[in-house]
Amino acid sequence: MPVSVAGASVGRMGAMLQPSREVTPYTELDRAAWAQLAETTESPLTAEEIERLRGLGDEIDIDEVREVYLPLSRILSLYVRHARALHSDTESFLGKPTVARTPFVIGIGGSVAVGKSTTARLLRELLARWPEHPRVALVTTDGFLWPNAELERRGLMQRKGFPESYDRKSLLRFVVEVKSGMDNVEAPVYSHLHYDRMPGVRTTVEQPDILLLEGLNVLQPAPRHADGKSGLAVSDFFDFSVYVDAAADDIRSWYVHRFLKLWETAFRNPESYFVRYGELSRQQAIAKAESLWDGINGPNLRENILPTRSRATLVLRKGADHAVRWVRLRKL
Fold first, then answer.
1. What beta strand segments (E) does the chain contain?
2. How far is the C-alpha of 329 from the C-alpha of 332, rounded, in Å?
3. Which residues of 19-53 are buried (b: 16+ CB within 10 A; e: fewer)?
């Protein structure tokens, strides 16, 4: 990264994020104002790298990275740096020897097809270019979905992606172990080709500086027990969270578009779980995609995902063209 986050940069960023006269817990900036926060910092990613990182259907380009994601990586770096300073000061206040701070955990949530996976991959690459935190890990919550056999047993195959379709205890244990500073923490791996967890396959997180945890329901509050008490939520252990937002009608359109792209490619693979969809006509594929959205993904967005938006530290709001139009940041 050509430019480090120096004190002058912090001051300039603070000046840009002046609170408005409206009484609100958020600072909201339009695309142009947000882009100015990193106008002197060149993007470290090439057009070819961005092409490799973007998800199916995303229209992201080098301008979007420079104007939206580079400033986001910059402010995240500020949060990481100051979290480390607070950790050091706290240890000193308590009279304890200073030990390495546990990983800074960032949750990234949003609907199916909204582009949160692309956001997560871009942030992983951009954050790793800042010299203060070169080790950045990315884990998706898909690996913590119950295996299909278990979902079938529980009658949840048609609610895959809803909060109850995840092994929440294992997901919570994973995040707790990461935040506890364990040397090696394992997470299960999901195959989108087979639409299932990969038996016996694990990914290992080895004390990163930053962990990005991406998924539909990462911002869910803790569920209430039968006695009315609530336990811990995964989001309780986040240091920062990002919600990727857009109008529901736009997301629906993007979902159908992505489904058609898969119908033309991955669904033709004999090993694909959805190979049967590859045999549909184009009109049948559109109808199937709309049915899946209206019956599963749309309700999940309305009932479970969208209500968590207000829990995020920062919201990226996209327009119909997939470009981010404004950014809302929770005030400290």
1. 26-30, 104-110, 136-140, 185-191, 196-205, 210-214, 240-245, 314-318, 324-330
2. 9
3. eeeeeeebbbbebeebbebbeebebbbeeeebeeb
CA–CA distance, 203 with 187 (Å, rounded to integer):
5
pLDDT in tens, 142-158: 999 999 999 999 999 99
Read off the pLDDT of residues 158-212 as tens digits, 9 standing for 90 and up. Answer: 999 999 999 999 999 999 999 998 999 999 999 999 999 999 999 999 999 999 9
pTM for the whole structure: 0.88
Query: Alpha-carbon distance 87 to 1, whole Å?
Result: 25
For 17, residues 6+ apart whose C-beta sits below 8 A from its C-beta are 27, 29, 329
* Domains recognised in the chain with CATH numbers: 7-330 (3.40.50.300)
Order of strands, sheet of 240-245, starting from the edge strand that comes earlier in the sequence: 26-30, 324-330, 314-318, 240-245, 104-110, 210-214, 136-140
